[in-house]
Amino acid sequence: MYGLFYSAIDIAFILQDLKLGCREESKVLDSIWENEKSLLSEQYRDNKRKFLLDIYQWSHYILDKDAIDKELVAIQRDLKHSDRTLQLEQLSGYFSDFDIFFKSCRIKILYGSKSYVKIKLRTLLERYGYKRRSSLIVQYIKHCLTFYNLQVAVRGGDICDIETVGIDEMLMFRVIS
């Protein structure tokens, strides 16, 4: 369940995808801080400064990943002198968690310009390395839908069950008010 809470890198990726200007991005971050605090990783719930600094750190990393990766040895050496460490697993595989899609849906719907996010079930599964839906994947998706207060429907707005909907069906995710 810990992975379901928003981390700084999650929000940095989502903001990158929204392609906002500085002012809009700042407004979205303030809104997330005010309205989504219960969904933030525990380390950020009482520390807005750390929340913002960590997001901006990851944003810079995402924008200039290749250059930073080339300097990784020097960065590690510099951090060692300041009694800090860099966890290398944070720098790779950062988009592999299946729940990032649902985090992104919630933030895009609440703070972006659309009232829904749509994707085919097959595309969603393939994006995260799955070829078919197993009962474990369905259970996890349902857990994410509940956790992020999302509802899934097919074209036409009919609410559907992720377990029985066709794999090539276009799904529309909305935040439940």
Describe this structure in words.
It contains eight helices and three strands. The chain has a three-stranded antiparallel sheet. It is mostly helical and 177 residues long. It is globular and about 55 Å long. Helices cover 50% and strands 8% of the residues.
Global mean pLDDT: 85
What pattern of helices and strands is seen along the backbone? HHHHHHEHHEE
Tally of contiguous helical segments: 8
Going across the major beta sheet, what is the strand order?
1-3-2
Described by the principal axes of the CA atoms, the overall outline is globular
Query: How is the main sheet built?
Result: 3 strands, antiparallel
- The CA-CA distance between the termini, in Å, is 23 Å
Nearest-angstrom radius of gyration? 18 Å
Low-confidence stretches: 91-96
Please give the share of residues in helix.
Answer: 40-55%
Question: Which class do the helix and strand fractions yield?
Answer: mainly alpha
Oligomer: single chain
Strand content: 5-15%
Number of strands: 3
What is the gist of this entry?
The protein has 177 residues and is mainly alpha-helical.
List the helices and strands and how they pair.
Elements: H1 8-18, H2 22-35, H3 48-63, H4 65-70, H5 72-81, H6 100-111, E1 117-120, H7 121-127, H8 135-147, E2 150-154, E3 170-175
Write out key terms for the chains shown:
single chain; 177 residues; mainly alpha; 3-stranded antiparallel sheet; 8 helices; 3 strands; 50% helix; globular
